[in-house]
Amino acid sequence: MTEGYVERNRDTWDGWAAGFAERDRARWATDEPRWGTWGVPERDLHLLADVEDLDAVELGCGTAYVSAWLARRGARPVGLDNSPNQLASARRFQNELGPRFPLVHGDAEHAPFADASFDLAISEYGAAIWCDPYAWIPEAARILRPGGRLVFLGHSVLAMLCSPLGDEVLPVEAELIRPHHGMHRFDWSDATEFQIAHGEMIRLLRSSGFEVEDLLELQAPEDGTTTVDWVTLEWARRFPTDEVWKARKL
Ligand SMILES: C[S@@+](CC[C@H](N)C(=O)[O-])C[C@H]1O[C@@H](n2cnc3c(N)ncnc32)[C@H](O)[C@@H]1O
């Protein structure tokens, strides 16, 4: 399988959408955003700080609860996603809970926006893991204005390296299983994800026109809970499950 991951991921997400709707309705409704696998509170991360009056795009928005959080903080978000069913949930939540903002169907590797359209591009487990970084990061640079911010959150490198081989979903282990060198594309039975090593990510961000501002490697809170079955709290107290990159377009 060398091509076609964009379509395969779209079909898979169309199939998964109904299963995420209840979880994401609660995220839409809350005034206390939490991030990533373990729900690290916004007060600890400040990913939504200083967004008032910004033109923002969420790349791989899913049900678009992050865009809802942005809109409530005075930003003007646009949610982009490639799954019609995920966008249908987002529209339903807009109608039920508000606020409303544009939702666009499309592929974040070929974002349907003009150059320099946004001040902030954000992704929580959207383009950040489902798109090829060598395609979506230069695309994010294209649609951001000079000085614009890129913030994205996805799996940590360590979580991918410690993930068991094979197709069964098993918890990550306290052992390096997969090779670090050459890590890029992960083909699972139902979907394809991407992850590159930190040095490679720094070079990609810089060659795409970004200055790297931070890399946060998140620790699960002591009493953390999660809805996923591929990582335990014991592991996530010792090792980062999620990482957040912050970069600025030069
Ligand atoms: C896990 S959701 C992200 C939304 C939410 N923040 C969350 O964590 O649930 C992943 C989303 O990425 C979308 N996605 C996958 N590939 C994409 C692509 N090439 N372009 C845009 N969106 C894509 C999927 O359709 C899905 O809605």
- How large, in whole angstroms, is the Cα Rg? 17 Å
Counting helices, strands and paired strands, the structural category is alpha/beta
Please bin the fraction of helical residues.
Answer: 25-40%
Shape: globular
Rounded average pLDDT = 96
**Low-confidence runs:** none
H-E string? HEEHEHEHEEHHEHEEHEHE
Q: N-to-C terminal Cα separation, in Å?
A: 36 Å
Overall strand count: 11
Name the beta content range: 15-25%
Summed up, what is this model?
With about 250 residues, this protein is an alpha/beta fold.
Q: How would you characterize this protein structure?
A:
α1 (5-29) packs across α3 (65-72) and α1 packs parallel to α4 (84-97). Helix content is 35%, strand content 24%. The longest helix is centred in the first third of the chain and has 25 residues, at 5-29. β4 (76-81), α4 and β5 (103-105) form a beta-alpha-beta unit. It has helices at 5-29, 42-45, 65-72, 84-97, 127-130, 133-143, 157-161, 198-207, 233-238; strands at 34-35, 40-41, 55-59, 76-81, 103-105, 118-124, 144-155, 185-187, 192-194, 210-218, 242-249. The mean pLDDT is 96. The relative contact order is 0.16. With 250 residues, the chain is α/β, with parallel strands linked by helices. The termini are far apart. The strands form three sheets. Strands 5-4-3-6-7-11-10 form a seven-stranded mixed sheet, sandwiched between helices. The chain has nine helices and eleven strands. The site of S-adenosylmethionine has 21 residues, from α1, β4 and α5. S-adenosylmethionine (SAM) binds at residues 6, 9, 13, 60-62, 66, 80-83, 86, 107-109, 124-127, 130-131.
